[in-house]
Amino acid sequence: MPGFLPRGWKNKRVSVLFERERGGSVDATLVNDNDGGVQLEMVEEQVVRRMFVPWVAVRYVELMEEPEERQGVTIGQE
User: Fold this and answer.
1) Rounded to an integer, what distance in angstroms lies between the CA atom of residue 66 and that of residue 72?
2) How many H helices and E strands in the chain?
3) In the chain, what's the furthest Cα-to-Cα distance?
4) How far, in Å, CA of 35 to CA of 51, rounded?
5) Contact 38, 51 (CB under 8 A)
6) DSSP-derived pairing of the beta strands 47-54 and 25-33
7) pLDDT tens digits, residue range 24-54?
8) pTM of the model
């Protein structure tokens, strides 16, 4: 089970890369993370959408703000 993302990442822009077989990525605001996965918020055409992405679907999370902090966390690796 992966660890939690750094606390300073909440309410910041992140890019989430999905596992290869699922493909793709999404840029969103990190709302929360827990043992199950990450909750993201996206604004599309003035509509706010929230989505939950389980850790098993996440390959990598990259922080898009505050470059002085650690930029990325690879899931399942330390």
Assistant:
1) 12
2) 0, 6
3) 38
4) 16
5) no
6) unpaired
7) 889 999 999 999 999 999 998 889 999 999 9
8) 0.75
